[in-house]
Every structure is written in structure tokens, then in C-alpha cells.
Specification:
single chain; 556 residues; alpha+beta; six-stranded mixed sheet; 16 strands; globular; binds iron/sulfur cluster
């Protein structure tokens, strides 16, 4: 099996020590990326860790394909215990960081401990340096980038950064990289902030040689020439109007499924504001969305479709420039746009203020600095719902992304069982269920009959993509056969590896008390309980949502 190489570097920011050790057995069994991050986290983070405690760790990992020139590989992974879900969680960021990480020569980097003083850590192939940075306390993501450029000649694509929200332990703070790219979901930015780490830089010239099949060139060529693909012009927002048309666009804090202003904030509106091509490293598909509003001078990247939902339809806002501004504020302050938009939508629902975009922008800033009502909202929907007097629209504490499961029922089940919570990319089942004309593999979105095995297979497949690391937007190019060839492993074996990764996550979470009671939804689906049991049976788990005989970990 093709896999990442290099040692595991453990950085204890509390006692300022570093250790490099051989983890070849983990790399060769789990490929890289999420697989390696999950295995290391499972075995090295105590099951009873406080997410904000020094014993929690963040594992930064990338995969073997980051040593190729293939499209769809500009991504990397971070794994740790989430302060939002309280479970083990991997988050995946695009941008340009992954190549700089690979260039350090390390296969994985663990950040553990807690520093009393705000610190930056510089990781290179020639050594590791700790730099106290009290002057960066409260600095925005851009300000950190400017400092690192001026003082160290580093580009922001070499950095991971905790914004003010991360320092203030906002439970959905993201780890930012390259200004607008984020390890977004699950609050790992708050874990970095709680460790007293403002920034980590990666640099070097020691990327390993990895022997990758020439098929990578075919994928690259096709990605470059797919000019009629809708994601080339409008990225993820190209689905907005369609999702609205089939009643799958959460609106006004999930109280409706269609938004009358969808066309004002959807694909065409975003494409009009797009002023240049945007991409991740090596990716010729270039689905990113650098946008500019000439009138206000506002520049950002995106919004992506999920942000259009969270700060647009779900907040009752039909102004694309307003959504761009919310997006930009979240990027500057370091917060997940989905969770932030959803919790603000919950506040708007509680106060009958849908559409009040000035209030939305005010709340984004108050959340990041935990001021006034922002302090409650910084806890996320699950912890704030009772006090706000609204329904808890989360799974396992993670706010819902779009692609609503009340219309796309299989995606609904996928939200419920996901170890990460209500995130669309865990199984990404929505992509099978949109009733797109001419899409051979489309599955009827209504009902759950026959879907549990398909969800299991998709979750396993995605766990492998996240380990490779391959962007999931490669779906129209990365066939199972191509994945087999690239990773030099039979597809059945890849499915087994994906299943093992999902099971490790589940086992860790079971030790923290997660079970069937946590695989729930805030709405009913037909034959949901039977489908849940079928899902567990397909995975070989107990009917209470726990794994049968858990893998033994150092945390045991
Ligand atoms: S498809 Fe889009 S998100 Fe994925 S690697 Fe390419 S540019 Fe980045």
C-alpha cells in the first residue's frame, strides 16, 4: 500500500521538548492523513481527556499523494478531541500548506501540552524553534501572517494559526491556513488556542520521494480540461439553486427548506463577484472562489455553499455582499462558518430578527471575543439552545451543514451516524441522492431502504480519500479503479482500511460515553430505528452503537 513516510514529531509546548520517533507500522497500515491521525490519537490521547487540557493533542498529518503533482491533493488533516462534540474528530483543510508540511520530512506532527506564554512553533527539516509571541495576543489571522512574513520571511501558506476565537476558546474556532482556508469543523482552533499556541510554521526541503503511478497525469489533465463542469465557475455554490429547487436548503434556522432569496446568494451571484481563479496546491480543477465587491472594496474567498446556507438562507439574509462579509469576518477571527452561522441563526430565531445582517456581523465579532451574548453563542447551538429557547439543531453537538436530510433521507441517516456529527463531508451521501438528470448512480432520496450498506461503503471510501489525501471534489474523476492504482492496493482492502478508521473513531468515542443515543436527529425519518440497526449490523457493531471488541489503546 502506498503510504506517507517520515517520523512522528511530538512537540510538547508545555516543557518545550520535541521527540522524533519511528511510526512506520502506523503509516503503512493507515496510509496517512486522517487514518494515521486517528490511529495515533486513538492510541496516545487518554480517553478521558479534557478537550482543553494539556493531555489533548492535535495530530497534523498529510498523505503520500502530497508528494505528487496530481490535482485534488492540496489538502491535509488535523485530528484531536473536539471541544464542540467532545469526541475524536478529524478536520481537513485545503490551500497550500500540505506541500510545506511534506517538505519538513515528517510523516506526522503531534502538538501536546500547554504553554503558559503565547508561543509560535517553527518546524523545519533542520530543527524546531519555540518563539514567545506576546505581541500577537488577540491578533487576527492576517496580522499573524504579516508578522511572520516581516520577521521570518514566511508565507501565510506555511502557517497554521489560531485567531482571536481560538485564543478565547470559542468551541467552533477553526485552525486557519492561507488566510481563507480552514481546518473548519469541530473547534480544533480552540484546542490550539488552549495550548497557548498562536501559530505553527512548516518549512523545509526534505519531501520524501514517493513512487506514484503515472495515472496521476490522466487525473490532472482531465481536471484541467473539464471546462464545462459547474464547479469550475461557481465552486460549491453551483448547487445552491438546485438544492433550493428540490427543497434541501435549510432556511430561517431550519424552519423551512426553500429560500425565496436563493438566487441572490447562490452560484450566479457568487460567480459575478469572482474576480480571478482560485485553487489549492497542484490542483488544476481550481474550484475556489476569490470574490470582490467593487462598491465596498470587500475582498474574500467564497462564500462556499455551506456558508451561503449558514449566513444566508438560514439567517434569512438575501444579500451576497453581506454573506461575503460574514465569511470574511469568520476567516479573520478564525471560526467555522457553518457552526457560527447556525448559532447566529438560532439567536435570530429566538429574537425574531431574521434578515438583520448588521446584527449578524455584530454577533460574529462578539462571539470571537466572547462579549455580551457572544459568550453564550461561543458555546455553540447544543449548549446554548435551552437558554435561547430554540430547538437543538445539532448531531453530537456539531451544527448541521446544508443538504437537508428531511429531503435527502440517506444524508439524514448519514448525519446521524457520523462520528464527527452533522457534517456533510463525512459520508457525503448527498452527492448520490440529488436527483440529477443523467447521473447513473443517483439514489432515490426518499426513504432509507437499502441505504445503510451504501452509507457504510461511502464512509469507508471517504476515510481512505482523507488518508491519501484526496479532495472529495474529485468525485467525477477519481474512480475506485484509479484509487486502487494510485494507492497500489485492491479496493476491497481499501474499504477494510476505511472501516478500521471509522471503527477506531467510534471506539474512542464509545469510551467517552457515546452510543446509539447520540446517533439521533432533530426530525423523524421513515423506519429510522430499523435503518440504524442495519447500519450497526453492516459495520459488525452492537445494536447499541458500540463496537464489539474494542481495539486496545495506550489510553486503556
Ligand atoms: S477541487 Fe477545489 S477544494 Fe479540492 S483540491 Fe481542488 S481547488 Fe482545492
Amino acid at each position: 500500500m502506498l503510504h506517507a513516510t517520515g517520523s512522528l514529531l511530538t512537540i510538547d509546548v508545555g516543557d518545550r521538548t520535541t521527540v522524533a520517533e519511528d511510526v512506520d507500522d502506523v503509516l503503512s497500515s493507515f496510509i496517512g492523513g486522517r487514518g494515521v491521525g486517528v490511529k495515533l490519537a486513538h492510541d496516545r490521547i487518554p480517553f478521558d481527556t479534557d478537550p482543553f487540557g494539556p493531555e489533548n493533542s492535535l495530530f497534523f498529518t498529510t498523505g503520500p499523494l502530497q508528494c505528487s503533482t496530481m490535482s485534488f491533493t492540496g489538502r491535509m488533516n488535523c485530528t484531536g478531541v473536539s471541544p464542540l462534540t467532545d469526541g475524536l474528530l478529524s478536520s481537513n483543510a485545503g490551500g497550500f500548506l500540505s506541500r510545506h508540511f511534506a517538505a519538513t520530512g515528517y510523516g506526522a506532527v503531534q502538538v501536546t501540552g500547554r504553554s503558559d506564554d503565547l508561543v509560535a512553533v517553527h518546524v523545519t527539516d533542520e530543527g524546531i524553534e519555540f518563539e514567545e509571541v506576546p505581541q500577537l495576543a488577540g491578533a487576527t489571522v492576517t496580522e499573524v501572517g504579516e508578522y511572520m512574513a516581516d520577521e521570518h520571511g514566511l508565507g501565510d501558506e506555511q502557517l497554521v494559526v489560531a485567531g482571536p476565537a481560538g485564543e478565547n476558546r470559542v468551541r467552533f474556532a477553526s485552525i486557519m491556513t492561507t488566510e481563507h482556508r480552514a481546518f473548519g469543523r469541530g473547534g480544533l482552533g480552540a484546542v490550539l488556542g488552549a495550548k497557548g499556541v498562536k501559530c505553527i510554521s512548516f518549512a523545509g526541503d526534505s519531501a520524501p520521494d514517493v513512487d506514484i503511478d503515472p495515472i496521476q497525469m490522466d487525473v490532472h489533465r482531465e481536471a484541467a480540461t473539464a471546462n464545462d463542469h459547474p464547479m469550475k465557475s461557481a465552486g460549491t455554490t453551483s448547487v445552491t439553486e438546485y438544492a433550493n429547487h428540490v427543497s434541501a436548503l435549510p432556511t430561517r434556522y431550519f424552519s423551512e427548506l426553500e429560500f425565496e432569496g436563493a438566487s441572490d446568494i447562490g452560484g450566479e451571484a457568487v460567480a459575478e463577484k469572482k474576480y480571478k481563479k482560485g485553487t489549492c496546491s497542484q490542483c488544476a480543477f481550481a474550484c475556489k472562489l476569490p470574490t470582490k465587491d467593487e462598491e465596498t472594496g470587500l475582498e474574500t474567498e467564497g462564500p462556499e455553499y455551506e456558508t451561503v446556507m449558514a449566513f444566508g438562507s438560514n439567517a434569512g439574509v438575501d444579500d451576497i455582499v453581506s454573506v461575503m462579509k460574514s465569511n470574511d469576518l469568520c476567516d479573520e477571527l478564525g471560526m467555522d462558518t457553518i457552526s457560527c452561522g447556525d448559532v447566529i441563526s438560532a439567536y435570530l430565531a429566538a429574537n425574531d430578527e431574521f434578515g438583520n445582517d448588521e446584527l449578524v456581523h455584530d454577533l460574529v465579532e462578539k462571539i470571537a471575543y466572547r462579549e455580551d451574548e457572544g459568550d453564550l453563542l461561543a458555546e455553540g447551538v447544543h449548549r446554548a439552545a435551552d437558554e435561547l429557547g430554540v430547538e437543538d439543531w445539532t448531531v453530537k453537538g456539531l451544527e448541521f451543514s446544508a443538504h437537508d436530510g428531511r429531503t435527502l433521507n440517506g444524508q439524514g441517516l448519514a448525519f446521524a451516524v457520523s462520528n464527527r456529527g452533522a457534517d456533510h463531508m463525512y459520508a457525503e451521501f448527498y452527492s448520490k441522492e440529488y436527483p440529477l438528470v443523467g447521473k447513473d448512480e443517483a439514489v432515490d432520496p426518499t426513504g432509507l431502504d437499502g441505504k445503510p450498506p451504501l452509507i457504510v461503503a461511502k464512509e469507508n471510501h471517504n476515510a481512505v480519500l482523507d488518508s491519501g489525501v484526496v479532495c472529495k471534489f474529485s468525485r467525477d474523476f477519481m474512480t475506485e479503479e484509479r484509487l486502487e492504482t494510485l494507492l497500489d492496493t485492491e479496493y476491497e482492502k481499501l474499504q477494510d482500511t476505511g472501516a478500521e478508521i471509522v471503527e477506531l473513531e467510534r471506539h474512542f468515542n464509545n469510551q467517552r460515553g457515546f452510543d446509539r443515543e447520540d446517533d439521533t436527529l432533530p426530525y423523524d425519518l421513515p423506519d429510522f430505528e430499523a435503518a440504524l440497526s442495519e447500519y450497526y449490523a453492516e459495520r459488525g457493531w452492537n445494536d447499541d452503537g458500540t463496537v464489539k471488541s474494542g481495539p486496545v489503546s495506550a489510553g486503556d
